[in-house]
Amino acid sequence: MQFHGSCHCGNLRFTLDWPGTPARLPARVCGCSFCRKHGGVWTAHPEAALQVTLHDAAAVRPYRFGTGTADFHLCTRCGVVPVVTSTIDGHTYAVASVNALDGLAPDAVERTAVDFDGEGTDDRLARRARGWIRQVVISAAPASPPAAPAP
Questions:
Q1: 147 pLDDT above the threshold of 70
Q2: Residues 6 or more apart whose Cβ sits within 8 Å of residue 2
Q3: Would the N or C end of the chain have less CB density within 10 A of its end CB?
Q4: Could you read off the pLDDT of 90-115 as tens digits, one per residue?
Q5: Do residues 12 and 83 lie in contact, with contact meaning Cβ atoms separated by under 8 Å?
């Protein structure tokens, strides 16, 4: 099943290819201080694939806190974080924001509260490597062709 999503202004867009057709999309309501303040609700499946396209890469900033092992990709134009990545042993893993998915009905999501306080860094990275999206591609959108000169 394929899902599409983006930040509010559309600068950071993504396509999430989910294996099979879930009855309800599993999602984690994160209890960390950042996600509580931003309403972070994340989904991932190790067999899913995530294609992220940055239309203006200069307007996307990574935000790190706590253990410094995850990059929250913040669109500086609209303030939305649609994707989080973590690089583990040279490989990029990701989660996608359920709140940034286009046209997903609230009842199509199975929300589970999670809290990773007290989890050690090694355990955290191992959990991500097991459960986060393994196929992640982040690329810049092709440059628009120059506008034709006015007659």
A1: no
A2: 15, 16, 17, 18
A3: C
A4: 999 999 999 999 999 989 999 999 99
A5: yes
Q: What's the pTM?
A: 0.91
Strand partners, 26: 110
Q: What is the DSSP string of the chain?
A: -EEEEE-TTSSEEEEEE-SS--SSEEEEEE-SHHHHHHT-EEE--TT-EEEEEESSGGGEEEE--TTS--EEEEETTT----EEEEEETTEEEEEEEGGGBTT--GGGEEEEEE--TT--HHHHHHHHHHHSBSEEEEEEPPPPPPPPPP-
- C-alpha distance from residue 54 to each of 12, 57, 58, 134 (Å): 5, 5, 9, 19
Domains defined for the chain, CATH in brackets: 2-140 (2.170.150.70)
Judge whether 49 and 58 are in contact, CB under 8 Å: no
The structure tokens listed for 4 are 């599409």
Q: What is the pLDDT of residue 150?
A: 60
Kindly report the average pLDDT of the chain as a whole number: 94
Q: What is the pLDDT of residue 145?
A: 54
* CA angle 6–12–17, rounded 5-degree value: 55
